[in-house]
């Protein structure tokens, strides 16, 4: 018998037994066809990931659409998968159009103008869904146990250039140079406290900073 049988049976998302599928982090659809190497694979309930599908499509279109032309992978992806999903969904089209904003100026902490990129309003429900799955998946991958469901994940999107300087001391993991890389930090004072910097495609635009906050855990303590 596999010594890790019990571990493999736990769902990374809800933490309960009975995982019946394998989830990829980052999602496979973030890669152009044929480029799927290096994915992190973790056990999940199909039912726990059912509501993630729409958030994945939403973020893939947003990130690959925002990425600069110098990111060939994102351009290819947006021209194929992104375009296909936009062609096939009038609802998604009108949603994205209504959420596109004029270009946003990026200013460094020292007040230096860093250029501008198209701004986009990010749907908060999709954001919560997407980041929850990404962070819980990566946490499980590193710690080999699920992050408890009552640990909150606080997050915001920001250009890498305005991220806290401390992130530069966080180890970096590159899953694919043009698709996804991340940095992480585990706190010494609490096993469930961690920080994550998720960089998609052109990391100038597609960067998510997230922190797992275990402060709500005590409410469930016995
Ligand atoms: Zn589950």
N- to C-terminal separation? 34 Å
Rg over alpha carbons:
18 Å
Q: How does the overall form come out from the CA principal axes? A: globular
Strand content of the residues, in percent? 25-35%
Mean pLDDT: 77
For the largest beta-sheet, the strand count, sense and barrel status come to: 5 strands, antiparallel
Give the topology, please.
Layout: H1 5-9, E1 21-25, E2 40-44, H2 46-49, H3 53-66, H4 72-88, H5 90-99, E3 100-107, E4 113-120, H6 124-143, E5 152-157, E6 172-176, E7 180-186, E8 194-200, E9 207-213
Antiparallel strand pairs: 1-2, 3-4, 5-9, 6-7, 7-8, 8-9
Bound molecules: zinc ion (ZN).
Zinc ion binds next to loops.
Descriptive notes:
The chain is an alpha+beta fold. The chain has one domain (5-220). It is 32% helix and 26% strand. The chain has six helices and nine strands; from the N terminus they run αββααααββαβββββ. The chain has helices at residues 5-9, 46-49, 53-66, 72-88, 90-99, 124-143; strands at 21-25, 40-44, 100-107, 113-120, 152-157, 172-176, 180-186, 194-200, 207-213. The chain has a five-stranded antiparallel sheet with strand order 5-9-8-7-6, covered by helices on one side. The protein has a two-stranded antiparallel ribbon with strand order 1-2. The chain binds zinc ion. Zinc ion (ZN) binds next to loops.
List keywords for this structure.
binds zinc ion; 32% helix; 222 residues
Summarize the structure.
With 222 residues, this protein is of the alpha+beta class.
